[in-house]
Write a structure and sequence with these properties.
elongated, mainly alpha, 196 residues, 60% helix
């Protein structure tokens, strides 16, 4: 729920690892970035299962069910009505429409559209994490640090497209949980001092 008209909602449960790593300096920015794809996997589970298959059929002009290029926007508009209650699904449809309008076709339009939706999803959740840190701790230094670390951890276009390919079942699967970093990695190992 929102804390007011200009506030973002609290981060979703599956962004908790990202929030924790953003607020904890002992995690490097690389370790923070490692948690992002797993959060996307969880977000994507909220998208209706058949949406991606429907988009593939609509965008694939080689399939018998593929549609004439002129009818694709109408088909996307029909799908939009079916998923109007789902922000992630509508973001994917917006991204696919934009990619199609820019001349991308087939699976490439789906990948680029999904990547754009992931970028938007990250921005919204990063803002929610930052605002939650601000409300929770009321510490401006920590809030600035969280903001900076989240900005540094933002994935680039090619990384987002790789994740999108996986999510639309056109690439390697992504783990649904971020890698754990439980061992002590800061400082020298005890007993490693070599006397010369």
């Amino acid at each position: 729920m929102s804390d007011g008209p200009f506030k973002s909602p609290h981060p979703k449960k599956h962004w908790r690892a990202v929030a924790e790593r953003a607020a904890t300096e002992s995690y490097t920015v690389s370790e923070l970035r490692e948690a992002v794809p797993a959060s996307f996997v969880s977000e994507f589970r909220e998208v209706p299962a058949d949406l991606i298959e429907k988009l593939k059929r609509i965008l694939n002009k080689d399939e018998p069910e593929g549609l004439n290029v002129r009818t694709i926007p109408d088909e996307i508009a029909r799908l939009r009505r079916d998923v109007a209650h789902n922000p992630n699904a509508t973001a994917i449809l917006d991204g696919v429409q934009d990619a199609f309008d820019c001349g991308h076709v087939g699976v490439e339009a789906l990948v680029k559209g999904t990547a754009a939706a992931l970028d938007r999803c990250y921005s919204e959740n990063a803002r929610a994490i930052e605002e939650h840190a601000q409300l929770d701790r009321k510490d401006e230094v920590l809030t600035q640090s969280v903001r900076q670390r989240l900005e540094e951890a933002a994935l680039g276009e090619s990384e987002l497209e790789d994740i999108a390919r996986s999510l639309v079942k056109e690439g390697e699967a992504i783990a649904g949980t971020p890698p754990k970093h439980d061992d002590l990695t800061d400082g020298p190992l005890i007993g490693d001092d070599v006397d010369e």
